[in-house]
Amino acid sequence: MAQTVKINVTVNGKQYEREVEPRLLLSDFIRHDLGLTGTHVGCEHGLCGACTVLMDGEAVRSCTIFAVQADGHEIQTVESLGTPDNLHPIQQAFIEKHALQCGFCTPGFLMTLVDYLGDNPNPTEEEIREAIDGNFCRCTGYFNIIEAVKLAAQKMASH
Ligand code: FES
Ligand code: FES
């Protein structure tokens, strides 16, 4: 049996103590060990952004981090954003602007944008394009995503 390491991680406000193999990726820990399958895995090479979560409030690609590196840290996944009756303003904006089709990329966009709009509440279109240039979407052509980010910024400003 492979050697394991004990880690303590807070995910979406809940504390977890788990034994993990040192090579286990944070994305696999979140999806398989914790069952939080809202975090998607596309490339597993840090390129597509689908696996983005927040670590201590900063957007990170969970496929490029080992679970042991999250020891003692706070992780937020897309499951923490809102509920069906009370969506996060960014989720609401994505719906209103039709910014998703298959939805595979959406959790990564949402988590990237939660971090980004928290720091940059009033971005220009150019800045929005830069903010999402590490998140790949194969369906939408990005136009509606950009419109959704503009709307989300407005919603968050009036919140
Ligand atoms: S799955 Fe992590 S960046 Fe693509
Ligand atoms: S909505 Fe399908 S990949 Fe973005």
Automatic annotation (TrEMBL):
SUPFAM superfamilies: 2Fe-2S ferredoxin-like, CO dehydrogenase ISP C-domain like. Pathway: Alkaloid degradation; nicotine degradation. It comes from the Bacteria. InterPro entries: 2Fe-2S-bd, 2Fe-2S-bd_dom_sf, 2Fe-2S_ferredoxin-like_sf, 2Fe-2S_ferredoxin-type, 2Fe2S_fd_BS, Beta-grasp_dom_sf, Diverse_Oxidoreductases. The keyword Metal-binding applies. The keyword Secreted does not apply. One of its GO terms (molecular function) is metal ion binding. Residues 5-81 form the 2Fe-2S ferredoxin-type domain. It holds the Pfam family Fer2_2. Keywords: 2Fe-2S, Iron, Iron-sulfur, Metal-binding, Oxidoreductase. This is (2Fe-2S)-binding protein. The lineage of its organism: Bacteria, Bacillati, Chloroflexota, Anaerolineae, Anaerolineales.
